[in-house]
Amino acid sequence: MQRILREQARKYAFDFHDAPLLKVQSGETFEIETFDASTGYFKTEQDLAIPAQRPGFHLSPPLANPIGGPVYVEGAERGDTLVMQIEHIEVEDYSWTAVGPRRGPLGESTAWPEVSGQYTTKIFKHSPGPSGTTRDGTVHFNDRISWPITPFVGTFGVCPDREVTTSLDGQGDWGGNLDIRDISPGNRISIPVYHPGALFYLGDVHASQGDTEFTGTAAETKSTVRLKLELIKGRKTPGIRIEKPESIVSVHMDRPLEAAVETATVKLMSWLTSEYGFSQVDAYCLVTACPDFRINVYQMCKIGKLSFVAGAEIPKKYLS
């Protein structure tokens, strides 16, 4: 099986000038070993998020969210769709989150001096599950609180048309730093293709995350991701789409949040009319009346140029 090793997965931009690290066939399984978002800086609670101490943080934007790639998919061309299917994610034995001055929405809050006045790093230990691996293991927040490891890929996508955009604050219909917890095993993620070979990248895995990733970092970790990329020729998906076993999700990123929510919803309605036979009136009325229609606010971080990421979701039972 082909693999991108962790030391190779140190790119910080979706750059169509990069030479491919792998060439794969449509449907071929391969692996990418990923760094955490800090490229290995956070190892203990003594490693604080002080910018002057972090390698690459003298640059603008700083070097964060390393990604592995590009992966060249044989036969992919502009106007095609790439479908990512993650087979499994195995995370390392710990994850971290970090807060402090000028980090996140409370980084300058006088009402919350413990988080705005000093740097704090929390290390979460991981224990393996019944499989003997972290694929079904546990995150230990502290001695009292724990929850299942629910890993997902935070930063992924293909090279956009013309820009070279960073893995830290780049976002668009092609992917980027989106922190969507549904980019996980068992789901099918559709991505439009803009360049020959698609030029796919992936990194920034999380062991778990709450809605919005409120502080700007969740349970950040290293991992090994096993996946395949399926090519759909001659059909371009209008942005990121997620097909879960029981539902479909249309994704959009924008500011303010209501703009992301509205556009994600309209994109879902377009999906219903183009592929599921709904009239425009029925699609419009379904999202306002159905009690199982949901808006997921995946990422709402006040960090740099990042937009807010929303997903409009409807169960498949209403589509047939």
Annotation, overall tally of beta strands: 22
Q: What fraction of the residues are assigned to beta strands by DSSP?
A: 35-45%
Radius of gyration: 19 Å
Biggest β-sheet description: 9 strands, mixed
Shape: globular
Which structural class do you get from the secondary structure elements?
mainly beta
Give the overall pLDDT as a whole number. 96
Distance between the termini: 38 Å
The main sheet orders its strands as 1-4-18-6-15-19-20-22-21
- In the predicted model, the low-confidence regions spanning at least 5 consecutive residues are none
The percentage helix is 10-25%
- Total helices: the number is 3
Element order: H for helix, E for strand: EEEEEEEHEEEEEEEEEEEEEHHEE
